[in-house]
Specification:
Layout: H1 4-27, H2 34-70, H3 75-100, H4 106-128, H5 130-137, E1 145-146, E2 152-153, E3 159-162, H6 164-169, H7 171-178, E4 184-188, H8 189-199, H9 204-221, E5 228-231, H10 241-252, E6 255-258, H11 261-269, E7 274-276, H12 277-283, E8 293-301, E9 308-311, E10 317-320, E11 329-341, E12 344-351
Parallel strand pairs: 3-4, 3-6, 4-5, 6-7, 10-12
Antiparallel strand pairs: 1-2, 8-9, 8-11, 9-10, 11-12
Helix pairs in contact: 1-2, 3-4, 7-9, 8-9
């Protein structure tokens, strides 16, 4: 839809009206006489011409910017903005009558100005303070459910923000498919932009990682059992993606799903709930006790003399003492001890022959 002609006409009429009122003030009469008509019509014509010329900058450009921004505004902000605009216009209407009693041209122009100012203030205040206002009325918002003490509490379905590392990793898609994730997953727009930037990289490895991340998002989105959405909120108090993610999590009372060690530490220091896929993987690994037997294929030599190394199905490393001679063979081993390291569990064993 072409809005330029409509807004040019709108600007011409508004400035023409202002010019008419200025002409009446200059002529000091509303009666149309040859002398007053010359002044009033000249003033109205000049102002209308100014309005026609300046409309693209004063009306068309702001209207286009507003239309583009409205597509990204959350529905809560849109509704609260409309409600605040209505309240502001009501206040302006109450003030219009006493202000209209002021001398010309203030009595005719100021009511219009007051309507714009109070309409803007009403919408702005309502949007900026919506959480506090909703808390007074105990109205739930997307950030959670407002508790009786006015504090926003978590909703029944927690909001989980996915960061770039966990999307590229891909295991979140498999975990979500099992139904263990009960919360609603969300991907901020700035994370999606970072994934796209990585996918467009000139480095082959980096580009493949970015494309894998986009494929994982597509897999999640096409899974009917997974609830995922993309949110356009972009915190203005942060520049880096990790900082924005932490800020957004604090604002929405959400948890962050990540594999990034540094983000994990920084977010926890700021009180943000972190769900680390690597920690989950370590927690669900097979539990073995010293003395148990298992069948293991030794695939390589160990660091120490005579050692052999094999891996369980979950990736846990098993170091077999005196197992070097069994490389590329499957043997029965006895677990001797288990060590918990930062990288995960490390199992030591010996071949059954020993």
């Amino acid at each position: 839809m072409q809005l330029s002609p409509l807004f040019r006409l709108f600007g011409t009429l508004i400035y023409g009206f202002i010019g008419w009122e200025l002409g009446v003030a200059l002529a000091q009469t509303r009666e149309i006489t040859p002398e007053s008509a010359m002044i009033i019509l000249t003033s109205a014509g000049v102002c209308a011409l100014i309005g026609y010329i300046l409309s693209p900058w004063l009306l068309v450009a702001p209207a286009r910017a507003a239309r583009n921004n409205l597509r990204q505004v959350p529905i809560e902000d849109l509704l609260t903005g409309i409600f605040g605009l209505t309240l502001g216009l009501i206040v302006a209407a109450l003030l219009a009558y006493p202000v209209s009693k002021l001398p010309t041209p203030f009595g005719t122009i100021l009511p219009f100005v007051i309507a714009i100012v109070f309409g803007y203030l009403g919408a702005t205040v309502m949007v900026l303070r919506k959480q506090d206002i909703f808390a007074l009325w105990r109205i739930p918002t997307s950030a959670g459910v407002t508790a009786s003490n006015g504090v926003v509490a978590s909703s029944d379905r927690a909001l989980l923000l996915l960061d770039t590392s966990v999307i590229i990793d891909g295991r979140i898609a498999d975990i979500a498919g099992t139904g263990f994730i009960l919360g609603k997953m969300a991907v901020p727009r700035f994370v999606l932009n970072e994934l796209q930037y990585i996918a467009d990289s000139s480095e082959v490895l980096r580009r493949n990682r970015g494309r894998r991340g986009l494929e994982m998002l597509d897999k999640l989105q096409n899974n009917p059992e997974v609830e995922i959405e993309f949110i356009d909120m972009d915190p203005e108090d942060a520049q880096q993606v990790d900082d924005k993610l932490i800020s957004l999590a604090m604002e929405l009372d959400a948890a962050v799903v990540t594999n990034d060690y540094n983000l994990n530490r920084v977010a926890r220091l700021q009180g943000v709930t972190i769900l680390n896929i690597n920690e989950l993987a370590n927690a669900v690994k097979s539990i073995l006790l010293p003395g148990e037997e298992l069948s293991l294929k030794i695939i390589q030599e160990g660091k120490e003399s005579g050692q052999g190394v094999g891996y369980l199905e979950d990736g846990t490393m098993v170091v077999v003492e005196n197992g070097r001679q069994y490389v590329n063979q499957e043997v029965l081993v006895h677990v001797t001890k288990i060590l918990q390291t930062n990288a995960g569990r490390l199992i030591f064993a010996t071949p059954e022959a020993f």
